[in-house]
Specification:
alpha/beta, 5-stranded parallel beta sheet, 5-stranded mixed beta barrel, 25 helices, 11 strands, 51% helix, 12% strand, disordered N terminus, disordered C terminus
Length: 822
């Protein structure tokens, strides 16, 4: 048979299922039922939907870009800052143009998700690519903090008298936790609900810009007096002769702040594979459209600030864009003020949620390349990368908790990671064009190389002008993160080389030398005589060793005497008592195993019963078995095996079985030795020994059948449709057609020939299909639904089909392979 199933000892049925743990039950109730693997589909996006779904991170940054420039300019330039704002915005728009043109080439060439990380990996190798990986990881973490903080500031701007501004940090942390919960439940970014904020924000802000320009032409656009408005960042009086030496520094600082407007442009390149075909062409059009919208918004918001003198406040709210909306729409259009603020808050929160999709996918890519722990590749309850979501939540909550929900305080951590990723993408694409020399490669190389150089200069500027404001931390974390990823990859590489060496020797026909042990010794370490010890002894005998020894280390003479009195007579296994005066059980076990393994040609296996208790029992019992196993495993020619035993559940089940067999109510089995009530029984065994023997007898597997089977009618065990035979009715040889779900796939080697064994299940039973001469059938894997036709045989009481005709009904992957005939 392809699969061997354990007897249903835990719940009394042969096909029983393990009881669910408390934590799994809680997780199921909190996150919902688990999604099946077959539901993992790539949701293809149209250009319209993709623009709304993938652009919030980039477009929303226009909400605070202008404000960040003014925060740097106002204290030095005063009112003249509004004049300097326009050329500064022009410089930022030029950088944005180069970045968009650079990423336009990225999405054309690399249509797989991954963005600058994939570009760097393909052109510079996996180690250099970790610079891009760390840059993007930092970017995603800070993006969550900045976007959520800016969104909370937008809410506070709409309601300045509310407590939102005073409690911005805890409110922002609460929103991040809410996003974490939603994404763990499987909220899909590719949904229409996530596209709405993008269009609402873009439309309302463009309307604000148009109305503002019209009012400027008409001549009734109000202008704020920044010198007499309380709460603003204190304006300077203009630069004096001596202060002019600092102007360049201030301009660079303002440029660095404004660079936050460029964040999020890479989001499209990270999700190219989600577009409808042709992926590259559609992604390029969406990227250009996003760049046009972002450029329009940044330019328009800066121009309105130039006209209205909307200025940043010390508290962070009302924001510049909120002041502009208030002055442009006035009292008559105050409704539109709230529309703009609602749209701003929504797109900022949605932009923060974008990281909850990008960060887990990036970590899974990096983990796939063995630069991050493999558990980052694991999908959780709702088919999302739960570990990545949790890590992102912890990091972003920590950042915003330490720094506070202030966009200006968080920006120094921001653009270094973003622009480093831009640089890696630009230089990577320049190398690609120089290597492949495709048509038109020269002007493409100039664009990408220029983008790489310019964004590298931005990184340098940011590192210098923002060093004392927090950039120093990123400059420390960055190289440490790259080194840590490379060090982790080295560890994975050393492990892989060992396995590849063994595999290469097997493939070349040189099998690794197998020690020929003429003597196999199994030592069962006994602490007390109970059901767990009985299970360990049964397992020890099943190994068919040369010698079986049961050993108890004496650290308490009274306990040893009780154990001697309770030990069941066994002509094959006698109990040995070994003195352990210093009570160092791990050392005593290692010495015993080492002494036994010193004999030439001897292999020693240590069997350790481990009793599993309720969660509170972990605090009531030590982990002696694990400690002994850890020490014994280091002894040459020795191995340790732990036999777990669920005490409470096993005793309850055995008691219920015994009671059902005797025809009376369940009676708990006593495990503690005690004197017999009416003298010794006739067979010379104590009542405890009788209970144990009854329990062992009750544990003997028996043929039982319960209907319906666990999971009957669900995904795992579908109900057979009309026209096919239920598997549970196949008890005699003959021909039949069955349909079910593939639960287990096993590849065997029989006389130098491959045999593909599959277990097929429906709501009535299980059937094994054997395909001789095959090691793989496309689409036939765990989770596939298949229909089989052919002769049925009975082996060990279960139906078997050999080389049946097969038809894939519900393939595991999205591409449905044709039916085959074997």
């Amino acid at each position: 048979m392809a699969v061997r199933k354990a007897a249903g000892l835990l719940d009394g049925s042969r096909n029983g299922e393990l009881p669910e743990t408390f934590w799994y039950t809680a997780k199921r109730r909190l996150l919902g039922p688990p999604m099946i693997n077959a539901e993992l589909r790539d949701q293809r996006l149209s250009k319209t939907l993709a623009l709304g779904v993938l652009s919030p991170d980039g477009i929303s940054s226009s909400a605070y870009g202008t404000e960040e420039i003014l925060i740097a300019l106002m204290p030095i330039f005063g009112v003249a800052a509004f004049a300097v704002l326009i050329p500064m915005t022009g410089v930022i728009l030029f950088v944005m143009l180069l970045v968009v043109l650079s990423y336009r080439e990225v999405v054309t060439v690399y249509t797989r998700a991954g963005g600058s990380y994939v570009v760097a990996r393909e052109n510079f190798g996996p180690r250099i690519a970790q610079i891009a990986a760390v840059a993007l990881l930092i970017d995603y973490v800070v993006t969550v903090a900045v976007q959520i903080a800016a969104g909370t500031a937008a809410v506070a701007s709409a309601f300045p008298s509310s407590p939102v501004g005073r409690y911005a940090t805890p409110i922002s942390i609460g929103i991040i936790l809410l996003m974490c919960f939603g994404n763990l439940r499987g909220i899909r970014e590719a949904g229409k609900v996530f596209a709405l904020p993008t269009y609402l924000f873009s439309g309302s802000v463009i309307l604000m810009i148009v109305v503002g320009l019209v009012r400027e032409v008409v001549g009734n656009l109000p202008q704020q007096n920044v010198l007499h408005t309380p709460g603003l960042i204190t304006p300077g009086k203009g630069a004096s002769y001596y202060e002019s030496l600092f102007l360049l520094y201030i301009l660079l600082k303002a440029f660095a702040n404004g660079g936050a407007s460029l964040t999020g442009i890479e989001a499209v390149s990270n999700a190219v594979s989600a577009f409808k075909p042709p992926e590259g062409t559609n992604a390029r059009r969406v990227l250009v459209t996003e760049g046009l919208i972002l450029g329009t918004l940044v330019a328009g918001i800066s121009w309105l600030s130039h006209l209205t003198h909307a200025s940043p406040y010390k508290l962070g709210y009302p924001t510049v864009i909120a002041q502009e909306a208030s002055m442009v729409f006035g009292h008559a259009g105050h409704f539109m003020f709230y529309v703009v603020q609602a749209a701003t808050a929504l797109i900022l929160y949605t932009g923060g949620n974008t990281s909850f999709n990008g960060f887990p996918f990036l970590t899974s890519f990096v983990a796939e390349d063995s630069f991050l722990p493999r558990w980052m590749m694991k999908r959780g309850q709702r088919l999302v990368f739960s570990n990545g979501i949790i890590v992102l939540t912890v990091l972003s909550v920590t950042l915003i908790g330490v720094i506070g929900a202030s966009v200006n305080a968080l920006v120094p951590f921001y653009a270094i990671g973003v622009f480093t990723a831009f640089s890696m993408a630009g230089f990577g694409m320049a190398k690609y064009h120089h290597t492949h020399k495709e048509p038109g490669w020269r002007h493409k190389l100039v664009i990408n190389f220029s983008a790489g150089v310019l964004t590298s200069i931005v990184v340098l500027i940011f590192a210098v002008v923002k060093f004392t404001e927090g950039a120093w931390l990123i400059l420390i974390v960055f190289p440490v993160g790259v080194f840590a990823l490379i060090r982790l990859n080295r560890e994975y590489g050393s492990e892989a080389r060992v396995l590849q060496t063994i595999g290469a020797r097997r493939a070349s026909g040189v099998a690794p030398s197998q020690p020929n042990y003429s003597r196999r010794v199994v030592i069962v370490f006994v602490d007390a005589f109970d059901l767990s010890t009985v299970a360990a002894l049964r397992y020890a005998k099943s190994l068919r060793p040369t010698v079986v020894r049961a050993v108890h280390f004496v650290i308490d003479t009274e306990q040893a005497e009780r154990l001697r009195a309770a030990w069941l007579p066994d002509r094959n296994v006698s109990l040995e008592f070994i003195d352990c005066p210093d009570r160092r059980l791990t050392r005593a076990a290692a010495d015993l195993v080492s002494h036994e393994a010193e004999t030439a040609g001897t292999q020693v296996t240590a069997i350790l019963p481990r009793r599993s208790f309720r969660p509170i029992g972990r605090f009531l019992h030590d982990r002696t078995a694990d400690k002994i196993a850890g020490v014994v495993s280091r002894v040459p020619n020795a191995a340790a095996t732990i036999i777990p035993f669920d005490v409470q559940n096993r005793v309850r089940i055995l008691a219920e079985r015994q009671a059902a067999r005797d025809g009376h109510a369940p009676v708990a089995i006593a495990l503690k030795p005690g004197p017999p009530a009416d003298g010794p029984p006739a067979d010379g065994l104590t009542s405890v020994q009788q209970d144990l023997r009854s329990a062992v007898a009750a544990a003997t597997p028996r043929e039982e059948k319960t209907e319906p089977l666990p999971g009957a009618g669900g995904y795992d065990r579908p109900i057979p449709p009309p026209g096919v035979a239920p598997i549970g009715t196949l008890h005699q040889p003959g021909k039949a057609t069955v349909e079910g779900r593939v639960r287990v796939v096993e590849i065997r080697s029989v006389e130098r020939n491959s045999v593909l064994a599959c277990e097929i299940s429906d709501s009535t039973g299980d059937l094994t299909a054997l395909f001789y001469g095959r090691s793989r059938i496309p689409g036939l894997m765990c989770g596939s639904r298949v229909r089989l036709r052919g002769p049925v045989g009975i082996k060990h009481g279960a139906p078997v089909m050999i080389n049946p005709a097969y038809e894939l009904i519900v393939p595991y992957s999205g591409n449905k392979p044709p039916a085959g005939d074997e």
